[in-house]
Amino acid sequence: MASLKVRRIDLTANNAAQQLAKLRDQFRIDAEVTTPQSKKLTQAVFGEALAPAKAVERICTDVRDKGLEAVLHYTELFDKVKLKPDAIRVKESELAEAHAAAEPEYLDVLRRIRYNIDSFQSGLLHRDAELRVSGSHELHLRYRPLNRVGVYCPGGAAAYPSTLLMTVCPAQAAGVKDIAVTMPPKDTGAYNRDMLAACHELGVKEVYRIGGAQAIAALAYGTEGIPGVDMVVGPGNQFVALAKKFVYGTVAVDCLAGPSEVVVVADDSAHPNYVALDLIAQAEHSPGVSILVTWYEPLLDEVKEALEKRLAKLGRGDLARESLERFGAFVLAPDKQTAMECVNEMAPEHLHIQTRDPDAFAEEVDAGAIFLGPFTPVALGDYAAGPSHVLPTGGTARFSSGLSANDFRKRTSIMRFTRNGLRDFAEDVAFLANKEGLTAHALSVEQRANDSGPAARPKPKPEKVAPVVATKK
Ligand SMILES: NC(=O)c1ccc[n+]([C@@H]2O[C@H](COP(=O)([O-])OP(=O)(O)OC[C@H]3O[C@@H](n4cnc5c(N)ncnc54)[C@H](O)[C@@H]3O)[C@@H](O)[C@H]2O)c1
Ligand SMILES: N[C@H](CO)Cc1c[nH]c[nH+]1
Ligand SMILES: [Zn+2]
Q1: Could you list which residues have their CB under 5 Å from ion ligand 3?
Q2: In ligand 2, which atom is closest to the CA atom of 349?
Q3: How many CA atoms lie within 13 A of 338 on its CB side?
């Protein structure tokens, strides 16, 4: 087999900024990172080579304007499945049958992991807050779960029961009652018995066989047979992430969780074999972005050798190799400080720090999730630890965070003043309101502050009603 070709980037004080910008732009959410097969598919569907964001705009507007007909149309073109309208929703009996037929060990694993996720996610929920100033006013912050949430579970190249756990469990911890799940109509999606069994185990009753941008649009706008939701969450490929960006505003979305990425930062203390395993683990998502950053040059050859050995024996070795060669990189930094700048420039979804002092390094850098030391591979977070594995990708970890139970709750502030409390605030409010030229605002406070009569109109006296007298016929 030909030797593995991973791009190498040597950072110097002079070229670091330019090299890193190039690296970062390559995996931005709207970058042209789609594979040649994906480009060919877009061309075949639209008759022209549309950029991913343009293709997504067409799909989403079609679904918004034409509803189910457009969902079925794109499902046929992208997923090669011709579905009848009544086959879109998975029957509850199918969910129950898949569950009844599932291996008991699989269900036990789901239950144990569900427990881990639920313990962490319930523990981090924000609590209602209040401030009371006696005789003056009271201020409250109230949290309530969203009513109805749509979960996208990817299923193009692999089936992800873990993603069901990492999305549905935080939503349930937040108190969301109404959860609809969509998965592509594939053996790795809504025709996968393990996925259906997991839905039943989690108590999800509403599952649709649709994927890609058309699924996100259907959830957001609602179509015949698919009631719209208040929020769409979940990871997926570039088209899914761009569709969430497109529908944002019509519905809430979580972070832009696109193709998975890892940056492994390692020094001379790191075990090359462990580093190689972590890079491959991300690459096998296909596509997945795997970047090694080090200031210890011998590690690069050691890791390359370990990668080659591993890839030769791996089930998805060919897919992982393709991802490593297309989207991977070995970055050699002149020193630790430049390595930190490199990480911050990329703000990766996952950062695994395998250095002598991982805590100190972590203090200085930004990422969706940070994994410390040799015994904390990203896979622990992917499957079982408790924080959701739905994390921001494409550099968006610079300004956004991974999914958590709090995302499924909306905050409302509630306040009440007494007349004395209002009087205490009235002068400042009126002053600032007048400065803004909003004199009615000022008046609404001043009038009340100056009044001394009763605050409310007296209750109207009940009208006298003539007694009903029974008469004999
Ligand atoms: N960030 C996270 O939290 C996280 C978690 C799990 C998985 N992932 C990522 O999710 C991704 C899953 O991708 P996937 O493709 O396997 O499944 P997917 O379900 O996200 O996407 C498959 C769908 O994409 C649509 N599609 C495919 N090619 C298209 C094209 N050219 N134009 C328009 N639509 C097209 C099809 O409708 C298909 O149903 C992986 O990249 C993985 O890394 C991310
Ligand atoms: N690494 C993915 C994004 O965080 C999650 C995942 C699911 N299964 C395995 N990995
Ligand atoms: Zn993963």
Answers
A1: 382
A2: 4
A3: 20
Give the CA distances from residue 368 to residues 262, 387, 388, 395, in Å, rounded to whole numbers and listed in that order. 10, 11, 10, 9
> Which residue ranges of the chain lie beneath pLDDT 70?
1, 32-34, 471-473
* Amino acid of residue 9: I
Residues 281, 306 contacting (CB under 8 angstroms): no
- Residue pair 394/29 in contact by the 8 Å Cβ criterion: yes
Give residue 34's pLDDT: 61
Amino acid making up residue 178: D
Instruction: Give the ranges where 15-140 is alpha helix by DSSP (H).
Output: 16-26, 36-46, 52-66, 68-79, 92-101, 104-123
Do 300 and 264 contact (CB within 8 A), yes or no?
no
CB neighbour list of residue 412: distance below 8 Å, 6 or more residues apart: 141, 142, 143, 144
Q: Across 393-461, where does the E strand assignment appear?
A: 409-417
CA of 154 from ligand 1 middle (Å) equals 6
The SS3 call for residue 248 is: strand
Predicted pLDDT at 1: 65
- The answer, yes or no, to whether any atom of ligand 2 lies below 6 A from the CB of 160, is yes
Rounded distance between C-alpha atoms, residue 7 and residue 288, angstroms:
15
Contacts of residue 344, Cβ cutoff 8 Å, sequence gap at least 6: 364, 365, 366
Of 127, 153, 159, nearest to 140 (Cα)? Answer: 127
Q: Which two tokens stand for residue 228?
A: 């719209």
> 371: which DSSP letter?
E
Q: What is the pTM of this model?
A: 0.93
Burial class (CB in 10 A: 0-12, 13-18, 19+), 132: exposed
| 8 A C-beta contact, residue 151 and residue 168 | yes
What is the spatial distance between Cα 284 and Cα 313, in angstroms, rounded to a whole number?
A: 13
* Distance in angstroms (rounded) separating the CA atoms of residues 352 and 118: 24
Ligand sitting nearest the alpha carbon of 259? 1
* C-alpha separations of 95 from 44, 102, 204, 461 in Å: 35, 11, 9, 59
**Active-site choice (349, 352, 389, 446):** 349
What percent helix, strand, coil does the chain show, rounded to 5? 45, 15, 35
Strand, helix or coil for residue 101: helix
State the complex-level ipTM: 0.98
Domains by residue range for the chain, with CATH: 7-27+259-384 (3.40.50.1980), 36-79 (no CATH), 86-256+405-410 (3.40.50.1980), 418-450 (no CATH)
Nearest atom (ligand 2) to Cα of 369: 4
Closest CA relative to residue 121, chosen from 365, 386, 416, 391:
386
